[in-house]
Amino acid sequence: MPITIVDVATRAGVSKTTVSRVLNGKGEVDRRTADRVRAVITDLGYVPNARAVNLARGRTRVVGMLVPALTWPWMGEVLQGAVDVVESEAYGLLLFTCNRGDESMRRFASQVSARSFDGLLVVEPEGTLDYITELHRRGLPVVLVDDRGHQPGFPSVRTTNEAGARSAAAHLLHRGRRRPLVVTGPRRFGCTRERTAGFTEAYAEAGLPVAPDRLVEGDFTFECGRAAVRRLLTDRVDFDAVFAHNDLSAAGALQALRDAGRRVPTDVAVVGFDDLPLAGHTHPPLTSVRQPLREMGAAAARALIGHLAGKPLPDPPTVIPTSLTVRASTGAT
Amino acid sequence: MPITIVDVATRAGVSKTTVSRVLNGKGEVDRRTADRVRAVITDLGYVPNARAVNLARGRTRVVGMLVPALTWPWMGEVLQGAVDVVESEAYGLLLFTCNRGDESMRRFASQVSARSFDGLLVVEPEGTLDYITELHRRGLPVVLVDDRGHQPGFPSVRTTNEAGARSAAAHLLHRGRRRPLVVTGPRRFGCTRERTAGFTEAYAEAGLPVAPDRLVEGDFTFECGRAAVRRLLTDRVDFDAVFAHNDLSAAGALQALRDAGRRVPTDVAVVGFDDLPLAGHTHPPLTSVRQPLREMGAAAARALIGHLAGKPLPDPPTVIPTSLTVRASTGAT
DNA sequence: CTGAAAGCGCTTACAG
DNA sequence: CTGAAAGCGCTTACAG
C-alpha cells in the first residue's frame, strides 16, 4: 500500500538507482531526469522508508537515552534539552528508564544488542556505571549527563558543583552569615562531596570553618531538609543560614523554619541548589544555585551526534557552569 | 563485525531458515538440531538485528509519542506510565516534542511518513488536533491522552474532570464553605469547562449558586492564582474557599492568602487539581483532586499496543477516575 | 524436519 | 549520465 522507490522509478521511467541518486544528491544526474523524478516524488508524496534506508546504510539515525526515572522534578529539563538537539539533527530519540528494575535493564540490554540505536545518552541509573562503561568499551558511543559527580572513563557533561557551592558560600558570607548549616545529598554521590567541599572551603578560607555537626546528610527530599532544621533547632544549635544541596530539601528547611517562627532571611538565610521552577514559588522565594540542566542535555546530545557524524568526542568532560539566582530567601529585594 | 544469522547458521551447520525457526519458535525443528543452534546462539552471544527483523516483518515494534513539552510538571508521570508499559511489552518508545514549533512538527511529520513507528501515543500539542485526526484517518493507529477534554474522533484516555470537580465541591460543602472562589484554566479547554460545570452545578444543587464574579479565568500558572486572590481581596469580595483548576495556581492562591494575613483553612479553605508532589509541600499542604496521570499514560500505551497486536481499540474513551486527596488546606488534621 | 529462493525497501560499488 | 546486480540481515512461502 505505501508507495516505494520502485513505484517512483517505474512512474518516472528510470531505475531505482537513479531515484536513489536524486533522493540523496549523490552522483551526477541529468537535470531533466532529476526534475522528472522529483516531480514524481512530490506527486506521489513519496518518502523513503526509514527502516530500509537504515538497514542499507548500516545505521539507525536513532539515539537511545537511558534515565533512572522520568518523574524526578529536573529530568524534564535534561530530556527537553536532549530532544531539542536530537530532533533538529533529524535523529530520533528512543527512551528507556529503569523504573521497573532489573527487568527494565534486561529490556534495555536487549535493545542495545539488537542495535536499535547508534549511540547512547545516559543519566546514570544508580549502580549501572560499570555496565555503561562496558558498553562504551565494546564500541557503543556513549555520552553521560553526569549528575552525580562520577567523572567516568568516557565522555560526559557535567556542571561546576564545587564552584556553584562556592558561589553560594560567597553570597552568604557577603550577606554577613557566619554560621551556616549544610543539608547535603547522599554522601556516596560525587556531587555531594563536591558541593560540600566547595562550600566548606570557602567558609574556611574566610576564617569560619564549618563544624562537623553543622553538616547534616540528607537524601534530596523535602522531608530531609525539614527534619534536619527541626532537629538542629531542637538541639539549640545556632545558625544563621542554610545551604541545602537541592531545592526540594531547601523548601523543607524553609517550612521547618517557618513552623519554628524563624524569619527568613532576617534570622536565617536559605540557599538551594538546582533552581527549579519551585524555587520561585516558595515562601519566600528561594535563592538557588542554578544547574544548567537543559544545556547539559543539549550539550550531551550535540557531542554524541557530532561523534556519530565523525567528529571526535571531547576528551575531558564538557563542563557547563552553574550560576547563582538570588531571591528573597537571602534578602534580595 | 557484529555477528549475524549467517554466522550462526554456518557454525551450526544449518540454513538461515532453520536458525530463524528456532529463534522464533515457528515450525517444527528437530530437538537435537534446535539444541545445537541454541548452543551456538548463546555461545556467540547472537542477538538478531532489530532493523533487519523489522524490515522483513513490515513493522518496527516501536511506538511514537508526541507531547507538547517535557518540562511541564505533570508530563513526567504520563511519560513514565507509557514507558513502563511500552518497555514491558518489548516495544521501544520514540519521543517527540513540538518544543521548537513548526520545525518540530515538520520533523515529526517526516518520521511519520518514513514509517519510523507502528503507532502513536499523543498528549496533544495545542492546535494539532486536526493533523492528528488526519493521521488517524489515514490509518496510523493513534491513542490520545486527553488532558484537555477534547473527546476527539479517535481512541483516547481521559479522566473525570466533572466528577473530580464535584468531589471538590462536595468536600468544601461538607466543610461548611458556602462562598467559594474558582480560579479556572483557560476557557478554551474542555477540561476547564468540565471542571467549572461540575463544581458550579454541585454548589447550585446545594442551593448556593456560584456568582459569575467568583469565577476567575486563569492560565494554570502560580501567578494567575496569586493575582486572582489578591484582586478579589482588594475588591473586598467575600469568600471562604478557593477551588483552583490546578495545583500551581492553588499554590499561588495560598501565597496571596498568606500575604494578606488570611488563615488557611480557618478563614479560607483551598483545593487544587492534579495532586502533584508539590501539593504535599505547600504551606499548609494542599487538598487536591488527583489526576491519575501515570495510569492514563499506561492505559493509553496498553490500548495502543493491544491494538497493534490485533485487539480492537476501545471505542468510547477510556475513563480513569479522579480521587480526592485531603490535606490540611481544607482542615485535615 | 530442512533448505533454496524470493522478498522487505533501500544503497552502493561496478560497468558501461 | 544511467542501470543491473549484489548486499544490508532478517522472514516466509514453497518444495521436498
A few lines on this structure:
The first copy, chain A, has 333 residues and is an alpha/beta fold. Chain A has helices spanning 5-12, 16-24, 31-44, 50-57, 75-88, 102-113, 129-137, 161-174, 190-205, 222-234, 247-259, 293-308; strands at residues 62-67, 92-97, 119-122, 142-145, 156-159, 180-184, 215-217, 241-244, 269-274, 287-290, 318-320, 323-325.
Plain-language structure description:
- The structure is a homodimer of 333-residue chains.
- Helices cover 44% and strands 16% of the residues of chain A.
- Chain A has helices at 5-12, 16-24, 31-44, 50-57, 75-88, 102-113, 129-137, 161-174, 190-205, 222-234, 247-259, 293-308; strands at residues 62-67, 92-97, 119-122, 142-145, 156-159, 180-184, 215-217, 241-244, 269-274, 287-290, 318-320, 323-325.
- In chain A, the strands form two sheets. A six-stranded parallel β-sheet of chain A has the order 2-1-3-4-5-11, sandwiched between helices. Chain A has a six-stranded mixed β-sheet with strand order 7-6-8-9-10-12, with helices on both faces.
- Chain A folds into three domains: 5-48, Orthogonal Bundle (434 Repressor (Amino-terminal Domain)), CATH 1.10.260.40; 59-159 and 293-322, Rossmann fold; 161-290 and 324-330, Rossmann fold, CATH 3.40.50.2300.
- The longest helix of chain A has 16 residues, at 190-205.
- Chain A has twelve helices and twelve strands.
- With 333 residues, the first copy, chain A, is an alpha/beta fold.
- In chain A, helix 5 links the parallel strand 1 (62-67) and strand 2.
- Chains A and B meet through helix 4, helix 5, strand 2, helix 6 and helix 11 of A and helix 4, helix 5, strand 2, helix 6 and helix 11 of B.
- Chain A binds a DNA duplex (16 and 16 nucleotides) through helix 2 and helix 4.
- Chains A, B: Residues 3-57 form the HTH lacI-type domain.
- Chains A, B: Keywords: DNA-binding, Transcription, Transcription regulation.
- Chains A, B: Pfam families: LacI, Peripla_BP_3.
- Chains A, B: This is Transcriptional regulator, LacI family.
- Chains A, B: One of its GO terms (molecular function) is DNA-binding transcription factor activity.
